[in-house]
Amino acid sequence: MKKLLQALAFSALIFGPASAAHAQVSFGIRIGPPPEPRWYRVQPQPSPDYEWIEGYWYPEGGRYRWHDGYWTRPPYAGAYWVAPYHIGGQYYAGRWEGSRGYVRHDHRWDRGGRRDERRDPREERGRGR
Q1: E strand or H helix that includes residue 9
Q2: Total domain count, the chain
């Protein structure tokens, strides 16, 4: 019996840290609900295939940043915009949804002013980008 207890103790000593190494630790920073929406002027619709996306606040680096509303084309026919929302202390990002799945808005798209251009990636490679 003593040898069995020693073997169990030894096994716990050897295999215990290995199972703890697979444990996942996660934490989040709560910054509270976003401020009230800002007021701004809506520009005229560029063409009938554009949809208006209302301005919204989104979290970035422990604070909220404002994203002005804008006209854009859906990523595919039949897609519809689901506005971002905050509920129960959790922020849910805006995204396009539809029959072909969802497409989230990547704020890096806004920097180059090319949010709505539909380019063939092979063309981009040919231009040295």
Answers
A1: helix 2-21
A2: 1
- What is the spatial distance between Cα 3 and Cα 20, in angstroms, rounded to a whole number? 25
Range of the domain at 110: 51-126
The reply to whether the predicted model has a pTM over 0.90 is no
Tokens of 7: 């073997």
- The two tokens of residue 50 are 């554009």
**Residue appearing with tokens 């920097």:** 111
CA distance 87 to 18: 38
Q: Is residue 3 part of a domain?
A: no
The answer to whether position 44 is within a domain reads no
In a domain, 39, yes or no: no
Neighbours of 4 (CB within 10 A): 8
- 26-54: average pLDDT: 82
